[in-house]
Design brief:
single chain; alpha/beta; Spore Coat Polysaccharide Biosynthesis Protein SpsA, Chain A; two-stranded antiparallel ribbon; 12 strands
């Protein structure tokens, strides 16, 4: 499934996926491959001219090991995509922002870093599921890789009315690395990392769907509408019924 060109020499732009098998095998042995295939197929549908690379970490790796992704990229400018993403449009603008700013990313669906145990104040959490980066961002990724296994990344959340704690996450360390960087990232709107059900409202087309759930037909329909030169940017909301959206204006 990897790009057939050996990743020995960096190429200008490309997509990176980082995967690993959990220490305890998944009940569905084909689960991870099925979603990785979906992710790669979607990227190649919109960027057939670009290569991709799949880095496979040792079995039992964790989100902390994901923080070493920079060293796995054979590209000059990279888009890292989680294996549960679906690319729904051209990503040229994201690559361009990485070339200009070093790093382009989105806020987390919960933008408050203080959901992590012991964190206070108004620090922002960034999502690591879709990251555009170039060599200029190396210091951020070096700091992230070093900090990931050292920080207490337990996070509190509410499920079914009860407070629970997740054991670890990679976004606390990434957000700290970004916070302490002298080079701020370019922040893309959540259309570039759309994560339902937490994200359910948006304007314009969705660029990257970030969910194991299938992309609803209405999202594909909305994106097709915005391919028209006379399309008008509008508000859309996903829910139990198809969201209202503007029909193509008559000429």
């Amino acid at each position: 499934m990897n790009d057939p060109t050996p990743p020995a020499t960096a190429r200008r732009r490309g997509a990176l996926y980082v995967i690993w098998e959990p220490a305890t095998p998944h009940a569905d042995s084909g689960f991870f491959k099925r979603f990785l295939d979906r992710a790669v197929t979607s990227f190649r549908a919109f960027h057939p001219e670009l290569p991709y690379h799949v880095a496979t970490l040792p079995r039992g790796s964790t989100l902390h090991d994901k923080a070493g992704m920079f060293e796995h990229s054979p590209f000059d400018v990279t888009v890292f995509l989680d294996a549960d993403t679906v690319v729904l449009g051209r990503l040229d603008y994201g690559f361009e922002m990485a070339e200009r700013f070093g790093l382009a990313c989105c806020h987390c669906v919960n933008p408050w870093l203080r959901r992590y145990v012991g964190v206070t104040g108004d620090l922002i959490e960034y999502n690591t599921g879709v990251l555009f980066f170039s060599e200029a961002a190396r210091p951020v990724f070096d700091d992230w890789r070093i900090a990931a296994p050292l920080l207490d990344s337990r996070a509190t959340f509410v499920r079914d009315g009860h407070v629970a704690v997740s054991p670890r996450d990679d976004q606390l360390s990434f957000s700290y690395a970004v916070q302490h960087s002298a080079r701020p990232p370019f922040v893309l709107p959540h259309n570039w990392n759309f994560a339902p059900p937490n994200h359910h409202a948006f304007f314009g087309p969705i660029k990257v769907w970030h969910s194991y759930a299938d992309v609803p037909d209405v999202v594909h329909e909305i994106n097709r509408y915005y391919e028209q030169p006379d399309a008008v940017m509008q508000y859309h909301e996903l829910g139990g019924t198809p969201p209202p959206w503007y029909a193509a204006p008559s000429s």
